[in-house]
Amino acid sequence: MMAEILKPTEDALKKAASVIREGGLVAFPTETVYGLGANAFNANAVAKIFEVKRRPRFDPIIVHIADFNDVERLCLEVDERAKMLIRKFLPGPLTLVLPKSEIVPYIVTAGLETVAIRMPSHPVALKLIKAAKVPIAAPSANFFGCLSPTTAEHVAEQIGREIDLIIDGGKCPIGIESTVLELVEKPTILRLGGLPLEEIEKVIGKLEISTLSKRPRSPGQLQKHYSPRTPLKILEKDLVVSKDIKAGLLAFTPPKDKLSFEKIEVLSVSGDLSEAACNFFSSLHRLDKAALDIIYAEPVPEIGLGKAIMDRLRKAEGIKNE
Ligand code: TXA
Ligand code: MG
């Protein structure tokens, strides 16, 4: 049965909070992408997330909080660097990976001694977490490895039949997942995302970006991830698109001529990277549904959010990004 889809009224959020407390699954909006939430302290509820997402058990889940005191409660130690970043960027699209305390179940961290903590800035997410009165473990509300959902419709299409409730808070304003930063020993970026790298470096200095290893610490690092079903290729100069294939174009800005593309999605009319990030997954979802043979993606400038967009394009293309 399709999950109920409710607008984020007081009543709906009360209902969602009680579903979470009772061990159910609720999809909810955040400023980055939609999350699939469960009570982080309920191991059975968290196990259901893995089933619904068809997600490997070695992939840890982010714990979402709405109260700064929960950082101390869920983490064994919060060093000075973490404190500075928390003061400056939370709530917002930054996830910190810190040593976990014993109250965090191992199913949430996939057996790791670290936990990923995130305080979203989306008012609906904050209200829901507060009403649930427990931290909410939530991955993106899509099938593992597929395109992330930035609208309630995206969620309904993929996993709507397998969860209890969807809160429809409209389109996610940032549109790409949070930046994941590990603060154990050397600060290391595990996933480029909604908070630009440069902003973090202004506060704690130069960061290492973790490259792919055989056993990724963070599946966002898997070579092929965030992928449409249609093959995707990053556009190179002087491309000749064969007339025999149905090709789509994911353009950064409006193309000068239509060329021979079946379908074109423009990320930003004015060439604004924030707008491009916000439209990124919706545009890819539409291209993926258009029965194309291939999607060509125009590269975007690799500054600010452009780095996170290019990272996702390279992963969708399945080319090693080291
Ligand atoms: O923006 C976001 O972060 C969204 C919204 C819903 O909050 N969530 C999200 O979750 O993107 P998910 O599960 O799709 O991606 C979380 C990433 C994964 O690559 C996971 O491996 C990594 O964070 N992660 C979680 N806990 C970790 C840990 N303890 N150590 C290393 N990586 C961790
Ligand atoms: Mg995800």
Question: How would you characterize the overall build of this protein?
Answer:
The structure is a single chain. The protein is built from ten helices and 15 strands. With 322 residues, the chain is of the alpha/beta class. β2 (26-28) and β3 form a beta hairpin. The protein is globular. The model has no long low-confidence stretch (mean pLDDT 92).
TL;DR?
The chain is built from ten helices and 15 strands. With 322 residues, the chain is α/β, with parallel strands linked by helices. The radius of gyration is 19 Å and the shape is globular.
SSE arrangement:
Layout (H helix, E strand, L loop, with lengths): L3 E3 L3 H12 L4 E3 L6 E5 L3 H11 L9 E2 L4 H6 L5 H10 L4 E6 L6 H4 L4 E5 L4 H10 L3 E2 L14 H8 L5 E3 L11 E4 L5 E4 L5 H8 L3 E2 L22 E3 L12 E5 L11 E4 L6 H16 L5 E4 L7 H13 L5
Parallel strand pairs: 1-8, 2-8, 4-6, 5-9, 10-11, 12-15, 13-14, 13-15
Antiparallel strand pairs: 2-3, 3-7, 4-7, 5-6, 9-10
Helix pairs in contact: 1-6, 9-10
Bound molecules: threonylcarbamoyladenylate and magnesium ion (MG).
Report the total helices: 10
Sheet with most strands: 11 strands, mixed
Strand content: 15-25%
Shape verdict: globular
Q: Which regions have little confidence, pLDDT < 50, spanning 5+ residues?
A: none
Instruction: Give the proportion of residues in helices.
Output: 25-40%
Q: Output the helix-strand order.
A: EHEEHEHHEHEHEHEEEHEEEEHEH
Number of strands: 15
Q: For the largest beta sheet, what order do the strands appear in spatially?
A: 1-8-2-3-7-4-6-5-9-10-11
Q: What is the gyration radius calculated from CA atoms?
A: 19 Å
Hetero groups in this structure are: threonylcarbamoyladenylate, magnesium ion
Give the N-terminus to C-terminus distance in angstroms. Answer: 43 Å
Average per-residue pLDDT, rounded, comes to: 92
Structural class: alpha/beta
Oligomeric state of the chains in view: single chain
